[in-house]
């Protein structure tokens, strides 16, 4: 007899329905898996066989063939284990297929029959619902995640034996129905912890208000990392749609906590400068996996010690910075991951770190220093609207300076500025000032005459390139939005012109 169980393969961000067909025939005992499976799936044979035996069932001494269909879809991972094991038992007529009808089965098996958590249950459950499944059988630890999909009954199982008993009508599972809860997990860091650093803080607020990328340059211990880590809490809250996207990415990356529910907090990712290209943008051998740019989707990608990142790695950031996606192309297939993040870069001004420092002198030789500074130019820096210097505060000031505004207060200002942008651009327009394309800048960011003259004068002095002018105007627009002003004035432009520290013609 041929048994058929339903499952899902997750490729990139999406799930695709897969039929797991199992044929058990007389012949020399063998266990074969066909249907373009990745080598990782071949290991399933050992797990499935041992798990069935551990569940007080006998393994058929016959020819067992599993076909994963459609064959053109490359399948990897361990999530078909449970579907295969149940398929074998149905083919052997040891369980009736009725209770498996329209049930999508997902789960990895351990040798003792335990059902282990897997990655990508959220997109898999979405695909199952779209393919007409009425229920999804998942590892207990993935149940909360699956329950985020409405209209789908969730059947959590912890052990293969439990699944078998349930399908025989001898036992029950604790069915879960649509329990979308929201996980609150703010950073717990507050902007008022940062004393002084008025200019850098202001730049951070402008970056948050307009969605601008930001570069902070300053001596060690100046508070750059401290500031960057406080950005997610002042950004506007995610919409439901954004939350869902972030949760989907976390599900695929296996980063959803147990009892995983909708992620409400914007991600903050800070990859080390030694991160590989694959780690940063995604890919890898076998089935591609998402990289840091995708894990930072709808949140913050913080590149600390920016000048230490390899040039090729930084080059690869161009596509996500421009298009908000990353496409990973392979010989047989390509996958596209979302990667719409806000970039915060931090760097010391020179190799020793003290160029321009008020207290300590710079000890760098000119050659290495020039080489280092050249790393603070280039295609990624060109896409950063705001740049600021972060000066070290004096030890005395640490205790004397007032605490300043809290993250909560600043978040309110940021939200108000974003609301103004939302009203101006509408639902179909740019999401924030940073996203206004060059051809729309004139219309979207109206400058008063004096403001325009200030920009033109800067261009004439050759301290501003055409692209740089666009960046300055976008930032000036955000400054005006923070002040709840309709037209961009000279003051706004002058402040925006201050947020440039790179010595190239920006
Ligand atoms: N403005 C500040 N207010 C309060 N504490 C500060 C401030 N600046 C620095 N500190 C203290 O100094 C520590 C180091 O700051 P931080 O790591 O943010 O510096 P950095 O600029 O990132 O340095 P590096 O260039 O070495 O990475 C902080 O953990 C904090 O305790
Ligand atoms: Mg730092």
How is this structure best described in words?
- This protein starts with a strand and ends in an 8-residue tail after the last helix.
- With 506 residues, the protein is α/β, with parallel strands linked by helices.
- The chain folds into 3 domains: 2-177, Ribosomal Protein S5, domain 2 (2-Layer Sandwich); 195-413, Rossmann fold (3-Layer(aba) Sandwich); 436-506, Helicase, Ruva Protein, domain 3 (Orthogonal Bundle), CATH 1.10.8.
- It has 20 helices and 21 strands.
- Bound molecules: adenosine-5'-triphosphate and magnesium ion.
- Adenosine-5'-triphosphate binds next to helix 8.
Task: Give the key terms.
506 residues; alpha/beta; Ribosomal Protein S5, domain 2; Rossmann fold; Helicase, Ruva Protein, domain 3; 3 domains; four-stranded mixed β-sheet; 20 helices; 18% strand; elongated; binds adenosine-5'-triphosphate; binds magnesium ion
N→C terminal distance: 71 Å
How are strands sequenced across the largest beta sheet?
A: 14-17-20-12-21
CATH superfamily placement of the largest domain: P-loop containing nucleotide triphosphate hydrolases
At the first level of CATH, the class of the largest domain is Alpha Beta
- Helix/strand structural class: alpha/beta
Query: What's the helix count?
Result: 20
- What percentage of the residues does DSSP assign to strands (E)? 15-25%
Do you know the CATH architecture of the largest domain?
3-Layer(aba) Sandwich
**Fraction in helix:** 25-40%
Bound molecules: adenosine-5'-triphosphate, magnesium ion
Number of strands: 21
How many strands, which pairing sense, and closed or not: the largest β-sheet? 5 strands, parallel
Rounded Rg: 28 Å
Low-confidence stretches: none
Number of domains: 3
- Briefly note the CATH topology name of the largest domain: Rossmann fold
Overall geometry comes to elongated
The overall average pLDDT, rounded, is 89
Quaternary form:
single chain
